[in-house]
């Protein structure tokens, strides 16, 4: 389960889509960029079960950003 999920706009013009995200997963901190097409570009470490984490991130972004 993802914990302490946070996001902020990637660009100063907040109307442009793109976000920097960070969160904890299995006691490890991860960072990534969430791009307008839903692509996730990892900054640093990649979770071992990347596909499951990506699914959780997409759900969180839909809830927080696109709602």
Overview of the structural elements:
This protein is of the alpha+beta class. The chain has one domain (2-64). It contains one helix and four strands, in the order ββββα. It has one helix at residues 50-64; strands at residues 2-9, 19-25, 28-34, 40-43. A four-stranded antiparallel beta sheet has the order 1-2-3-4, with helices on one face.
Separation of termini? 21 Å
Portion of residues within helices: 10-25%
Which percent range describes the beta-strand content? 35-45%
Order of the strands making up the biggest sheet: 1-2-3-4
Query: How many strand units?
Result: 4
Show unreliable segments. none
Number of helices: 1
Domains (count): 1
Mean pLDDT: 90
* SSE run: EEEEH
Any idea what the shape is? globular
The class by helix and strand makeup works out as alpha+beta
Reported for the largest beta sheet, the result is: 4 strands, antiparallel
What's the assembly state of these chains?
A: single chain
Radius of gyration: 11 Å
Question: Keyphrases for this structure?
Answer:
67 residues; alpha+beta; four-stranded antiparallel beta sheet; 1 helix; 4 strands; 22% helix; 39% strand
């Amino acid at each position: 389960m993802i914990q302490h999920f946070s996001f902020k706009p990637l660009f100063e013009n907040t109307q442009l889509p793109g976000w920097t995200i960070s969160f904890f997963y299995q006691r490890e901190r991860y960072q990534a960029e969430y791009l307008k097409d839903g692509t996730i570009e990892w900054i640093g470490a990649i979770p071992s079960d990347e596909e499951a984490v990506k699914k959780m991130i997409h759900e969180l972004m839909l809830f927080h950003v696109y709602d």
